[in-house]
Write a structure and sequence with these properties.
Oligomer: heterodimer
Shape of chain A: globular
Strand order of the largest sheet of chain B: 3-2-4-5-1-6-7-8-9
Strand order of the largest sheet of chain A: 4-3-2-5-6-1-7-8-9-10
Order of helices and strands of chain B: HEHEHEHHEHHEHHEHEEEHHH
Radius of gyration of chain B: 31 Å
Number of strands of chain B: 9
Largest sheet of chain A: 10 strands, mixed
Number of helices of chain B: 13
Largest sheet of chain B: 9 strands, mixed
Number of helices of chain A: 7
Strand content of chain B: 15-25%
Radius of gyration of chain A: 17 Å
Largest interface: A-B, 48 and 43 residues
Structural class of chain B: alpha/beta
């Protein structure tokens, strides 16, 4: 199942979604991918009858569709728009099922397009790739800040939130520190300190971001969880409570 | 050790200390200073001061912005600017007219000073200004500070990130860690905010177990409490340092308390040490007084020989050199 009920229960988020007009930062490592939360946030948004805009700098549209199909999310039945940030060009010759709804060429064009969309959950996957191709941290923060500003404006007329997924390493640490200052929630995925385990895929630490104190409803509480990735879902549990141990 | 009543930070936050026209709050990714800054703003509102909120990235909390005494100087990029690409310069820094910001803030200060007893200019936060120009930002802060100094209870309150500001500021090509140093030199007080659990690492006698500290851990960005280190430069030239804990109470105001460092200074004392491993042994490892005395009285057979002179008998094949072997040393 794409919506991780155990995670929603641990965070006290009944709908699985973060509050409207918030920014959620997900960090992961090579051994513990943060992108496993993308199906969760996507499906939670679909269950609330809200559109999703997914902008990826890492993978094609097909990649995400395969994963979501495996997890039981029927993207063709919901409003999912995919923005291709992986490669520039003309993709009009692609079949409609795999054709991106927008290709990121000039950033002002994308911001204009984004501001014309209805209030949505905007997911940015692999933003640190912009650092890899040579953009400075200021420019990457400019991109994230602009998306955040647009989402905040959209949230005045409906549910809208921003989710940013970044790979955390020594090259992106400074960028992550800057994004944490603009975020309400931080989900940090990392491998187990004790090494690999058959029953536990990694560890998730969920803490507030700098802007959390400005939220009016603060029912969220920080959590340290272990998780196990299986074929069609991800199970979250307290440390030492995996099914292998029990 | 200061009691809560004697804390300088408490007097500063309650506007009872008038020699702080420029107060800078510094934070890291692990602990934000935003709750403390907003609590100080509420404290200022409670004292009848007018607030000028200079917002460069996001607005302050709704309960502050809706107050009639709060005036917004909105420097956030507009949707139109984002859409047409005019919000940012080619290098990614914000396109902010510093001269216009200066005149906007000064005109608001003039308006508020005519009706209120004083004002607080809140700059949230300094990073977009620093990324444009460190020099121009310092000039702006100095000017605002000189205006605030003329009115006894007025203050400039600014927040910045000490773990990223140096990397993102325009320092004219310098690679030196300038930002925290220069802000410290022009500010009347600098408050560094930390997580509560870092106190143990500051105390003598603390040893690391060698493991790297995680980037993210439970306790990060606690919106209710934290630790702060105050550096207060008085007009006389004296610089005072203070360590305190703060908590945001139900009224969203700051409450400060002294930090009890004594309990953590002696982590290896008998009271805090673990159980004695010699307690339940079937044999005795301690020495009696007589055994200690007998041990001290033992005469070591070769001690005198080691302490005395060495007598060497030259053999026929030895070559006696009367020169000092250290002559070639240029001492």
């Amino acid at each position: 199942m794409a919506t991780y009920k155990s995670l929603s229960a641990s965070l006290n988020w009944p709908s699985g979604q973060p509050p409207s007009s918030t920014t959620t930062l997900i960090t992961g490592t090579l051994s513990a991918e943060g992108s496993i939360l993308i199906p969760h946030f996507t499906n939670s948004t679909f269950e609330a009858q809200t559109p999703v805009i997914l902008l990826s700098f890492r993978h094609t549209y097909n990649h995400y569709m395969h994963i979501m199909r495996k997890m039981g999310v029927h993207t063709n039945r919901h409003d999912l728009k995919f923005v291709n940030g992986l490669a520039r060009g003309d993709f009009s010759q692609l079949p409609q099922a795999t054709r991106p709804h927008f290709t990121l060429n000039e950033w002002p064009e994308f911001f204009q397009w984004l501001s014309e969309q209805p209030p949505s959950t905007v997911i940015l996957d692999g933003v640190c790739s912009l650092l890899d191709v040579g953009y400075s941290e200021n420019i990457v923060m400019q991109f994230i800040g602009s998306c955040q500003r647009i989402v905040e404006e959209k949230a005045q007329s409906g549910y809208a939130a921003l989710v940013v997924n970044v790979l955390l390493d020594e090259f992106s640490e400074s960028l992550v520190r800057s994004v944490v200052r603009r975020a309400h929630f931080l989900f940090s995925f990392e491998g187990l300190a004790s090494g690999a385990s058959s029953g536990v895929s990694g560890q998730l630490t969920v803490v507030p971001g700098h802007l959390f104190c400005q939220l009016q409803q603060r029912t969220f509480s920080p959590a340290l969880l272990h998780y196990q990735v299986s074929d069609a879902t991800v199970q979250f549990f307290s440390p030492g409570q995996s099914s292998t141990v029990l | 050790m200061a009691t809560a009543a004697g804390l300088s930070i408490k007097r500063i936050a309650a506007h009872q200390q008038h020699s702080v026209p420029l107060l800078v709050l510094s934070e890291t990714a692990q602990q934000t200073a935003l709750p403390l800054m907003e609590a100080m703003v509420r404290e200022g509102l409670g004292h009848g001061l007018g607030i000028v909120a200079v917002c460069l990235e996001q607005l302050l909390s709704r309960d502050i912005m809706c107050q009639p005494e709060v005036t917004l100087v909105d420097c956030r990029p507009t949707m139109a600017q984002i859409g047409n690409g005019s919000a940012f310069l080619p290098n990614g820094t914000r396109r902010i007219d510093l001269a216009r910001l200066d005149s906007d803030v000064c005109s608001q200060i003039e308006r508020i000073s005519a009706v209120s007893g004083g004002f607080v200019v809140v700059i949230d936060d300094l990073e977009p200004l620093l990324s444009i120009s460190l020099v121009d930002t310092l000039a702006l802060l100095r000017k605002f500070r000189s205006v605030a100094k003329q009115c006894q209870s007025s203050r400039i309150l600014a927040r910045y990130s000490r773990d990223t500001a140096d990397r993102r500021a325009d320092k004219g090509g310098s690679h030196l860690p300038l930002v925290p140093n220069v802000l410290q030199s022009i500010a009347d007080a600098v408050v560094d905010v930390y997580r509560m659990d870092v106190l143990g690492s500051w105390m003598p006698g603390w040893y690391s177990n060698g493991e790297a500290q995680p980037f993210v851990s439970l306790g990060d960005n606690d919106e209710r409490r934290g630790l702060l280190r105050l550096e207060h430069r008085r007009q006389s030239g004296k610089v005072g340092y203070e360590l305190a804990a703060f908590e945001i109470n139900e009224q969203q105001k700051p409450v400060f308390s002294a930090v009890k460092a004594v309990a953590t200074v002696e982590p290896l004392s008998a009271a805090t040490a673990g159980p004695d491993p010699r307690q339940h042994l079937p044999f005795n490892l301690d020495l009696t007084d007589k055994q200690r005395q007998d041990r001290a009285d033992v005469e070591l057979p070769y001690l005198e020989a080691q302490a005395g002179e060495i007598h060497y008998q030259m053999a026929e094949e030895d070559d006696w050199d009367e020169d000092d072997p250290d002559d070639d040393l240029e001492i």
